Amino acid sequence: MNYVKNLKTYLPFATNTFQRLISYKANVLIFIFGESLMLAVTYYLWKAIYGSSTGASIHGFSFNEMIIYLFISFLTNLMISVDIGSDISREVKDGSIAINLIRPISYEKRMLFQGLGTIFYNFIFIFIGTFLITTTMFYRFFGYISIVNILFYFISMILGILLNFYFNYIFGLLSFKITNMWGLSQITQAIVQLLSGIMIPIVFFPVWAQPLFKFLPFSSMIYTPTMIYLGKLNDFEILKALTVQGIWIIILILIAKIMWKKLIKTLTILGG
Length: 272
Fold this sequence. Notes:
This protein has 272 residues and is mainly α. The chain has one domain (2-266). The protein is built from twelve helices and two strands; from the N terminus they run ααββαααααααααα. It has a two-stranded antiparallel sheet. It is globular and about 60 Å long. It starts with a helix and ends in a 9-residue tail after the last helix.
């Protein structure tokens, strides 16, 4: 009963976000065009790299595997993208957080369901079609499709969504103390893009740095699901990777709750 009550309370936040996004259909076309252009540039970059290589594979990746990696990492990044941090920062700057805090609902759950609205929108209008095309490409390249790997990919991606949400939520809570988050946001985004393996697999980094990068939560957001999809991890490695994701989620939840209790007491409301 409590679950149903929570769903009725917070589901409208997801629905409102979905309806707001769907009202701007041109944004999808612009987004697809921009990302397609980026993927095209990256494709020709890797094509040039493999063309100048003497071997058929680099760090265990063939050219076809790298192409699939780029597509799946792009889709995974799309699905986990819950930009809650900027939403919280905006509410703090314009003062609307004052009204939201006095509502008899959990601020954390509200932001989570807002993020789910964005995820659901991306899933319907971008992910499904592109994922089917990518999986078809995978079959044409390698002659098989692993349903088990796809299943574990989705499980890992869901964990990646929670990881990215709580990371962004924690980052957003910093705006309770730091008024202008723009500079810090740009630095953080650059670090996350580098360490999450969006464009460059972690195995391409120096050997001494790989254990550190794999330990940090960023690789669990994108690199782990993508490697599972490609079949680069065996059963034990998949179980280990999912466990690492689960542990980081618990750690980030605890950090978020501690930060909330500390920062909410000293929050200064700006704006009207």
